[in-house]
Amino acid sequence: MNLKALVKSLLLRKFTTGLLILQLAITLGLVVNSVILSLDTRENLSRDTGMDNDNILIVSLHPTSGDYRDLDYYRSIVREDFEQLARLPGVKSVSAANQLPLRTRGALRNIYDLDNPEQERIDTYLQDVKVFFGDENLADAMGLSVVEGRYLNQSDQRDFGSDESPNIVISESLKKSLYGEASAIGQETNRGRIVGVIRDITFNPTLPADKQYAVFDNTLMEYIFIGRYYILSVEPGQMASVRNKVSETILAVQPERDIFRVFTMAEHLERYYRDDKGLADLFLLLCGLMLLVTAISSYAYAQFHVSRQKKYIGIRRALGARKKDVLLYVLTENALVCGLGCLLGAAVVVGFNILLSQYISLSKPGLLQFLLASGIIFIAGLVATWLPAVKTSKIAPVVATRTV
Fold it and tell me: Which keywords does this Swiss-Prot/TrEMBL entry list (predicted)?
């Protein structure tokens, strides 16, 4: 096979060849980045969050009665809610919180050791730390594990309006940022005195694993009006039963409340990545359409130019070229075009990745992904060109004697 002759033949129709190469490159860029987005989303959904997602039930609610302006009344209702929910078969623990993990925003505060206020300038993540207001049962409800000291108990609850510095619990990564490998127990911060450290869970999925900073403060009953979520730890296999009863149980205590949603932590995680999953599905659909269009273009390209070269091919057949030689010629021409498209596609892949990374979190393209996508492009081009190639191989030598 004369590669030089092939290249010369392509240059004679450089406009249509260039368009096909550009289309192949764009298709490759779309395919690779769509696969990356899909794999990233699947990995995020399957990543260990540090919680038993399937067995944590969340109730989002808000009072509608003016009686709740009386904080003592509000507290009494919440305590009754907790008692009634704890009696439901399958419920292990009940608590409430002002916000949920697995979110980017929420109640954020700065934190630093009182003896080292410059810490938050060195580690800027200390300027936006999630602060959870909850009671002593929040650790059980969310499945938090204590790695140092203890979790908050009822004695840590402050009186309303108290100026006393609160006891707090912090996450393990926050403790390492503030104190390294030294003990954090008894240390004083601008948010309170540390009495315990809990193992990290995924508080903010967009942050690195070693930056999952959080502070827990037992002030739920002091600021109950911001406790918008009830959190229930449920026995395995009992979620459906508990879920069906939780709303009517709450409204039976006091009906003047809106219950917005009842959902599991697993559903909360899926909701967080809903946009990414939808975008990944859309991109995969576009990939399928682009591959189909590219295959059609490859077929049309081969069919059109073969029809223009009948006399030339007839001459080759008259000079002794076999059918398989002609078939190989057409397929090699297509492979050369696909190869050039993939070379240009390498730049398009990187360009698409950089552009998409400005708007969504996206991993960098890898060599294996590029090679697999290139293989798909080659196979699609081969299948699309096969029929024109077979037809071309059947051109009789007598065609060379006709006037075209």
Answer: Cell membrane, Membrane, Transmembrane, Transmembrane helix
